[in-house]
Amino acid sequence: MLCAVTAVSLGEDRGETAASGVLLFEQGRYEEAAAAFEKNLTDGSTTLRERALLALSYAHTDRLDAALKVADHARREAPSNSLVQLAYANVLYMDEQYEAATDAFSRVRRLEPSSEPALDGLVASLLKQSAAQLHAGELAAAEANIERVLSIAPSHPAALGLFVTLRKRQGRNEGIIDALEQLARQNSRAADVHAELARRYMETGRIEDAIRAYREAEAAGTDDPTTYLVLARHELPRATKSITLSRLHLAIGKGVQQAGALRVRLARRLDGNEQDWTEDDITAIEDIVRRSEEPISVIEDALALLERVHGDAAAFERDVRRLSEWYPSSRRLKIAIGRLLERNGSWEDAHRHWSAVLEAHPTLSAAQIGTARALDQLGMAAEARLAYRRALDRAPEHEHIYDALSRLYEGDESTLRQFYLDRLAINSRNPTLLEALAQLERHMGMADAAAGHRAARSRILEERRSDSSAASQAGDR
């Protein structure tokens, strides 16, 4: 809670009651201080300074209406008294009237340019406004206030942090590296600042600077999974195997945690009726989905490098299983185990594994497809057909499923065609389904039907390309 005014700064007060009130205020006993000042107010013998302290005592005890009334009356009586004006500005700030507080602190600075409490109050008020404006999407207003803070306090860490956030929201890079460098110099243990700085260096081709910043992020214990993956890759020829494995384990673990946190945020945003979503909700959902891609990519790349570092299938399998035990909620690790079992040709183990994953995550398309693939390899054709058909509910444009169904329904094409037609009645804009249906009909000698479905597919793909191009152009603007 901001309070740039102290009893000492208000000078000497006269009278035993006033002195008692000052002492109580200095001790933080605001309720009792207010009672002492009120006695003088009742007697009609208070000074402007005593009323300023009374207003602050009220503010500290959540009697903000009374605080504003007393402070406003005092500052109107003495418009050129900087200390009384400062008390009024503090009360406005404590009442969360940040725009009015900004104006009030600015008036104090005009009266007393060297006042540090007024400067601190002005900066704090501007930062509060900036944060609220960023949250509300008022980027131009936020930028103006942040720039104002940086013009009077160029190295203020909170202002620099808000500046970085603003630039990210704007999709602009100007000044970000400089701001991050200042933050990194101010706090060598700011792990995520170093990680973000490293990312920015990497994007601008400053590889050596990026690696140095990633090392500093690692030393500070960053939660950024990319840091550990980049260092594992870059220092693979020089680092010991145990160090590389440790970094890859951290990359996977931090990636799992980050992806999990983003899933929780997404679930909260998706909660409720879609018709009630605001434009901010939709923007936030799109942002979360976009950000979720990075930790997932890190996990997959780290697993690929982990396999290479081990150089032994059995050792890699043991390591991945151990990681899965450490992070039991990670779907990516479970998928990795299933695919490893498939590569090793352990189809019975793969079937058991995918079945267990599917039981824990019934909507996970990779588990549905993995189950179907295992059943197929085990020669359980009828069960595989059913599993692949179910998998289409979650992955309706997965080409591998249609290829498998085409093979499994060889000799019974009419049944498969009817299944495709039924699905087409539900979703007529699935180009992969249309292509599979057209291929099947051509194989069955139904050239006209195949041509019609191929033409429909071409129209849908052209519309998608047009929509994608329009969206890209809108983004560029």
Note the main attributes of this structure.
single chain; 477 residues; mainly alpha; 24 helices
Describe this entry's structure for a reader.
- The longest helix has 32 residues, at 279-310.
- The chain has helices at 16-26, 30-43, 48-60, 64-77, 82-94, 98-111, 116-136, 139-152, 157-170, 176-186, 191-203, 207-219, 225-234, 241-270, 279-310, 313-326, 331-343, 347-360, 365-377, 381-394, 399-408, 413-426, 431-443, 447-476.
- The model is unreliable at 6-15 (pLDDT under 50).
- It is mostly helical.
Draw up the topology in text.
Elements: H1 16-26, H2 30-43, H3 48-60, H4 64-77, H5 82-94, H6 98-111, H7 116-136, H8 139-152, H9 157-170, H10 176-186, H11 191-203, H12 207-219, H13 225-234, H14 241-270, H15 279-310, H16 313-326, H17 331-343, H18 347-360, H19 365-377, H20 381-394, H21 399-408, H22 413-426, H23 431-443, H24 447-476
Helix pairs in contact: 1-2, 2-3, 3-4, 3-5, 4-5, 5-6, 5-7, 6-7, 7-8, 7-9, 8-9, 9-10, 10-11, 11-12, 12-13, 13-14, 13-15, 14-15, 15-16, 16-17, 17-18, 17-19, 18-19, 19-20, 20-21, 21-23, 22-23, 23-24
